[in-house]
Amino acid sequence: MRFLTGGESHGAALLAIVEGVPARLPLEASYINAQLARRQRGFGRGGRMAIERDTVKILSGVRGAWTLGSPISLLVKNLDWPNWEKIMAVEGPVLAEKVTKPRPGHADLSGAIKYGHRDVRNVLERASARETAMRTAVGAVARRLLEELGVSLYSHVVNIGGVRVEKVDWDRVEDSPLRCGDSRAEERMMKAIEDAGVRGDSLGGVFEVRVKGLPPGLGSYAHWDRRLDGRLAQAVVSIPGVKGVEIGEAFSMADLPGSQVHDPICWESDRGFFRASNRAGGLEGGMSNGEEIVVRGAMKPIPTLGIPLASVDIETKEPFPSHKERSDVCAVPAAGVVAEAMVAWVVAQAVMEKMGGDTMEELKERWERYEGWVRSF
Ligand code: EPS
């Protein structure tokens, strides 16, 4: 399975071509749209989210709400486009004022140097986290496939601006303004976001994604690039703003002796093998181990600030406060939803590598046979 996306933040639309999804998977735009709506929500989002109502148009690869096995083409229109048609004109003279003041923390400066752009807009349009809308749509296709196999994904926010959750009530996460399971922590997080917004500042944090229902043995210990933990880490760090990944209890495990870290192996006749704890986050030796997968991502505060940081104009070389763009104060809850999509993609890829199959029937049959093998091992 592979996919490519295209599209600028203020261009006409975002696009993707998704290849390798088996035929006969039930798929409807409304399913993808529900995931897109989850990404748009969250206290601390900026003005753009009030403009967009992200919805997908499936342009190929699906007929009568079933996948065909052919490439699935997806389109998400940018509702903001009419306001940017002149600035982002594909042909003819671009009449907009050039952006020459790169923002620290963004792709602006390195991207301009790399591609020789004297207008930083040529970089920031594609580097914008707007692209994650399409990743969410693509991830929804992978999620639909996993759902058919009984695999589910969910996420929550565990820290914003240094305020950490203490007790997690999973029932409140989906409807909570910060996708947070701890109402008291959430109140403090919201206050911190509000205060940061007033100051013209931004806040980062940590989200956690979990995957339930996977058998052991996805990924491989045999080669570095087949390790599922490495592939998940790459996928999560590739989300704009994410600077760190933790699998299971990685950072606290680094402080403890091995005897307090590794998850004891148990066996019962009706369950087969299982673990007494899950500090490994469902991954050992580069493979799933049958326990829940737990991956966290640390997101830095968004680099577009109301209080601009010191920068240098790329034309005049004069020091200047950096360019201001409309932005979010905090996008950690949205990043958690994007991470679910990326994790769904990597896991579905690993499932397809192991099981293969051109139809869902073939895939399900192989999945069930393997589950039987695991139970009786
Ligand atoms: C985003 C859309 C963007 C940004 C945000 C993510 O829209 P605009 O630039 O028109 O405000 O709000 O991207 C960033 C904050 C960033 O630094 O890349 C979206 O759809 O999620």
Bound molecules: ligand EPS
Structure annotation, total helices = 11
Domain count: 1
Q: Mean pLDDT across all residues, rounded? A: 96
Q: Radius of gyration from the CA trace?
A: 22 Å
Q: Give the overall form.
A: globular
Extended strand count: 17
At the first level of CATH, the class is: Alpha Beta
Strand content: 15-25%
User: Per CATH, what is the topology?
Assistant: Chorismate synthase, AroC fold
Task: Write a structural description.
The chain is an alpha+beta fold and 377 residues long. It is built from eleven helices and 17 strands. The chain has helices at 29-40, 48-51, 108-115, 121-127, 132-148, 170-173, 183-199, 228-237, 250-253, 332-355, 360-376; strands at 2-6, 13-19, 56-60, 62-63, 66-67, 72-77, 152-160, 163-164, 205-212, 242-247, 265-268, 272-275, 283-284, 287-288, 293-299, 310-312, 319-321. Strands 8-7-9-15-10 form a five-stranded antiparallel β-sheet. The protein has a four-stranded antiparallel β-sheet with strand order 1-2-6-3. Helix 3 (108-115) crosses helix 4 (121-127). It is globular. It binds ligand EPS. Ligand EPS is lined by residues 9, 46, 48, 128-130, 132-133, 240, 302, 304, 325-328.
Write out key terms for the chains shown.
binds ligand EPS, 4-stranded antiparallel beta sheet, 5-stranded antiparallel beta sheet, alpha+beta, 33% helix, single chain, Chorismate synthase, AroC fold, 377 residues
Short description:
The chain is an alpha+beta fold and 377 residues long. It contains 11 helices and 17 strands.
Give the arrangement of secondary structure elements.
Elements: E1 2-6, E2 13-19, H1 29-40, H2 48-51, E3 56-60, E4 62-63, E5 66-67, E6 72-77, H3 108-115, H4 121-127, H5 132-148, E7 152-160, E8 163-164, H6 170-173, H7 183-199, E9 205-212, H8 228-237, E10 242-247, H9 250-253, E11 265-268, E12 272-275, E13 283-284, E14 287-288, E15 293-299, E16 310-312, E17 319-321, H10 332-355, H11 360-376
Antiparallel strand pairs: 1-2, 2-6, 3-6, 4-5, 7-8, 7-9, 9-15, 10-15, 11-12, 13-14, 16-17
Bound molecules: ligand EPS.
Ligand EPS is lined by residues 9, 46, 48, 128-130, 132-133, 240, 302, 304, 325-328.
